[in-house]
Amino acid sequence: MTSILHAAVVLAAVSLFGWPSTPASAQEPAKKAADPRAGANFIPTKVYSQAEDEQVLKLFAGLRVADVVDGLDKAGLQGLGQVSADVRPVWRDTVRYTHRFVGIAVTARYVPTNKPPAGRRDTKDFDRWAGQWYKNLSSEPFVSLIRPGTAVVIEDAAAADVGTIGSNNILGWKAKGCVGVVTSAGARDTDEITAQRMPLYFAKPGRGIRPGRNEIESVNRPIVVGGVQVRPGDVIVADGDGVVVVPRQDAEEVAEYARTTLEGDKAGRRKLYETLKMPPDDSVK
Fold this sequence. Notes:
The protein is α/β, with parallel strands linked by helices. The chain has one domain: Ribonuclease E inhibitor RraA/RraA-like (Glucose Oxidase, domain 1). It has helices at 2-17, 24-27, 50-60, 65-74, 123-136, 167-175, 190-196, 251-275, and strands at residues 88-89, 101-112, 150-155, 178-183, 186-187, 200-202, 204-205, 214-219, 223-225, 228-230, 235-239, 242-246. The strands form 3 sheets. Strands 1, 2, 3, 4, 6, 8, 11 and 12 form an 8-stranded mixed beta sheet that branches. It has a two-stranded parallel ribbon with strand order 5-7. A two-stranded antiparallel sheet has the order 9-10. The longest helix is centred in the last third of the chain and has 25 residues, at 251-275. The protein is globular and about 70 Å long.
């Protein structure tokens, strides 16, 4: 009798309120785990706002590579962040120092292709082949990430004689706000880039086009340039001494000490300029 009464109570409750809901995890089929053979990234990309970037850029404005290296030493990062001296400026301005720049890294990685070259073709067919390669295999998907203060940093196919960077596309990047470019490999049209006064730091001239030579592998992921890891959002400082990379999490501490180094150097050299009766230049102002 008790069991019958209990069943009646349960049925009455169901008629009023419905059956208890099944947990969502039980309702949905279990998601299939990703196949590890498909590959995985283990270093997350941290995203910073433009306002955050601007704040950091103000801290580094006018600082030299040497000052920043001293700041890295003070922060316990001695020997880190110093890009190989093989990566050097394409041109220098020793009056206004317009080859120098400070920027926030947007990264791209190109790898050597394992696909065959085009072979001999008529002009129309060759141009079609090259256009398809640019579109499908070796495009510039990082361009949409460029904003004022961006430094485009490219890891490229070092052994290939390829000019991923040229006088045309580098101007397009500048128009979107790019302040300088660093690559572990090559660039072409270096005479025009020099005339255009767009800061570019590279390892060597690269004379060939991308089709048949490299492919885009990733954008805004950690890369290696000149033996140094570069993550998106890191601070890039470049001048006649080369390129240095400051990890974003250490930027404020590094910049603070670097600023005292620069100010002390300028003050000391201003006095020497006066003693030697040398007219002041931009380096001591």
